[in-house]
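Case study 2.
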Amino acid sequence: MYALSAQDKNDENKIRKINKIRKMKESKGSFFNNYLGGDVFSKKTVIQQLPFVLYVVFLLMLYITNTYIAEDVNREVLTKTKLLEDRHVEYVYNKSEITRMTKQSELAKILKNKGIKESVEPLKKITVKK
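Prediction:
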């Protein structure tokens, strides 16, 4: 067989390294050329991956829609919370007014103007015999 000397092996390794570098430079250039030229979309592997890409796009659309709906619901909840707080304040105010107006002293003042006097006699129990 043919035996290579150390110098020949060293030269062969240098040639391989140079070829690798050339291929890397060509592949970088062809990568950008393929994308810019549109060649990458006509390849068989891309066409095979098209259903998955469409599925991912569909999921992204669902995600975006869900986000908008969640924001709308959140806005509505905040609006209802503010309305509830307003109604609670109104309820507390009206309850305090009713409590104030139904006190015995307030009723006596209101009825005194209408000519009805407060009774000073204690209440009597009425019993019926059968």
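The two ends are 140 Å apart (CA to CA).
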